[in-house]
Amino acid sequence: TADQQLARAALRRIVTTLQPVRWRKGNNLPLAFIGESARLRAVGPLTAQGEAAGLRVFELAVESVSVTGAARQRVVLRQAPLAWDAEAFDEPLAGAADQIVLDDLTEARFAYFGSDDGRAAARWHDAWPDASRMPALVRISLQSTDAGWQDLVAAPVVMGGNCTLDLAFKLRCT
Question: Angle at the Cα of 59 (from 40 to 68), degrees rounded to 5?
Answer without folding.
Answer: 95
